[in-house]
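Input chain follows. Return structure tokens only.
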Amino acid sequence: MAGELPEYYFRVKDNGALVFRVDAENRQRRIEMDQIATVNVRNGEIKPQGGRELAPEELAEIRTWLEKRGTLLAQREVDDILRTVDHLNLTAHWVQSKASDAQLDEVTDALLLAMHDLRSVLVRKKADRLLKGAPEAE
């Protein structure tokens, strides 16, 4: 392998990660990974594994990963929404220029309901934000 291996490896899962200490400095020159903790990204919970107590440097490394992971997931979430906007535009073009009557019959109701629901939520949230920013009446 080229380069140095990291001291810790984070195996990402749906709601967080399994944290492993990486050891390549052994007699067999094999990479060994010892699970030291599980991490929950949603609530920041760090659970040591195997009855161990995590060292301060391990906790610091895990907290740094949690912060970076949270930032990355937030960026991805916004990017996914912006991709949805692009997809809606592509869908509008498809409806206007390529869709057959049978295809439109298959998707129209689902699209209209989803767009109505989204519009309702967006309008309500925007109104809430505007009301929060409005000066209070005396």
